[in-house]
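Subject: complex prediction, re-run

Hi both,

The earlier run crashed halfway through, so I resubmitted it with identical inputs.
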Amino acid sequence: MDIDYTQEERQFQQQVRGFLDENLPRGNEMWSKRDAWFKSLQAQGGWDVPKWPAEFGGPGWTPVQHYIWDRETAGRSLPPVLPFGQVMLAPILMRYGSKEQQERFLPDIRANKVNWCQGYSEPGAGSDLASLKTRAVLSEDGSKYVVNGTKIWTTMGHMAQWMFCLTRTSSEGPKQEGITFLLINMKTPGITVKPIFTLGGSHHVNQVFFDNVEVPVENRVGEEGKGWTYAKGLLQHERSGIAGISRTLTALSKLKKNARSVRVGDRTLLDDSSYKRKLAETEIELRALEFAELRSLADAQQTGEPGTASSILKLKGTELQQRVQELTIEAAGPYALNAGFKEAGPKFSKMGMMMYLNGRAATVYGGCSEVQKDVIAKRVLGIKD
Amino acid sequence: MDFKFTEEQQMLRDSIQKFVREHYPADRVGARRKAFRKAPGFAEENWQQFADLGWLGVPFPEELGGIGGDLADVMVVMEELGKGLVVEPYFPTVVLFGSALMLGGNADQQQSLVPQLIEGKLRGTLAYMEEQARYELADVATTATARDGKYLLNGTKSLVLNADSADYLVVSARTGGDRTAREGITLFLVPADAEGVKRVDYPTIDVLRASEVSFENVAVGEDAILGSVGEGLALLEAISQRAILALGAESVGMMEMLYRDTTDYTSQRVQFEKPLAAFQSVKHRIVDMFVQTELTRSLLYRATMEVQGEHEDAPLDVHGLKHMVGKAGRFVGQSAVQLHGGMGQTEELRVGHYFIRLAAIDAQFGDTDYHLGRYTELMPIPEGEPDADLLPF
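This time it finished cleanly. Structure:
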């Protein structure tokens, strides 16, 4: 066992730092220099798509290199990339999509030209996703599917040009077996997107309605009825990202600075021992979880499987995100009331409550915590239902 | 970075598991432990087997007769001994006494004692705790007064593990400074049968052995000094770090057994026409036990490698580990006893014994609350202005 980076890993860390110092746009330039930033990433040899394998133009990093990249970028603000195309759909297309589909969709995903959204959950299919009912019927000539039904909690559905969608093509046999994976152009006639406003008034998620929406058969990924298998693999990609441990460590580090700026009498909140102990307790668990992630990466590197430690990442990672958010609004004190005004209270309070409210979703999406526990019980501990 | 266990570590693990299967079978744990309530509290023939199998030599260098292992090797040993609820005094002799010799001893002291220890012919322990000190290593009232080229030790040490079977005691005493001063503590190597050493021996709640040891004008020479005069606290802290890693490994081993035993028991026991484990409230609590165990294990690996590599975060993560061991150990132990129902309350099953041992471990070398406090003192606070940009979360 050895905790230290190898010579090569240290060099890589230096390379990443140097690259970020030189190329990462700051503050106001975040949007104006966005394209130059992506070009510079590409010029490094696939750093714009870090998770992609080398054969599809990714950098082919080792798990430890991924870890280094995450740690080095977590403390800085990067021009955001929505995960749906690059992180969630692309691995499915690479594995199960046709050559034509790969050539048609992957370049635009990589260039951030097309926004994707995910069409999974339905009003009647949340944790029990396989009970989904949105119906896709193949036309008699076999050229297209006709889709009817509705999807809900569609993040960024109002901004997306395309949706990857789970539809029901058969009601025979086990419910997991009649599901088909379709790629749907959001401009197709018959699609309506209605906003859903979440706690705090944000609009990220939507309900999408399908009324006789025609989808060409060449937009089906893989075989009819195999969509559940494809999606399950994808869910794992989603979950590994949701844990967000590096991001939470950064958030905690910011929280310490913010807490130090909060006056309590003639001292600061960081001198309050009961508050500081809460920070410490959270940090200890985060440092433990950070290492659980490393153990999982190491297992993946050796065996191709993420190992038992990985099962706790989403469950515990989202809990700790929420814990840091809670401690952030505690730090804001009376200014937890701040709903986004710059003028009132410490600056961080402007976003603190918003993060806290939006953050509640993390233990619900991507498989809620209760379902995660069922999955661990069954897969890791071998407990039968 | 490398998280693999080596082939040698795997062999070491296998050989301890084999010993445990033979000498500490799961169905006889209760009776076996009861039999050890009297001095010396373990089986001499087992100890000799530890020596013959090379386990006593794990952390010592080859030139002293050891196998030159590192802290990860000790971790493997302690984890497996913990799973087996083994009572032989590996922790006091190899971890406490051995660390004191290797971290503080000079060449003469090491050469005269370590080879005998490895052969199973000599045992030692650490007499550091005093009743008023609670968990503060620096709170030392025992005095060592220099007189005619000798030191006279006076005072009482408490809860000295396995002192009744030890040949040597490593004793912390004041050569200077007030009772709680960080300077002025010196460690001495004292033969257990030296004139003026008195012991009251007793079994502890986890069926191990401990003693109250008093020193009345116990005379030792300068050759008994471990490390430097007056600088014993740093040495005690380093020994304490290794103690925490070892107890952490033992705890993680036990926590794993607790969630496994609880899974098995609740999968077999049928109530209301189905196995208890099929009830979600039971199932989820077992998953919580597993999660806490994996978190603690992760921190154990982290802290072990950091101490081994003299990493700057080592003190921080050792405090974090002991905090976590206490908190998670309590949760996992209590949950196992709860989910075993009436059987969990008895001494027949091993879960109760794990539960007790975890409670005993929390009360040694600083409990969960103490180490949270120490962590809080060391917790890094980044420089810089407040940062209102909370995204991306």
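Strands of chain A lie at 116-119, 135-138, 144-152, 162-168, 179-185, 191-196, 205-216, 220-221, 263-264, 267-268.

- K.
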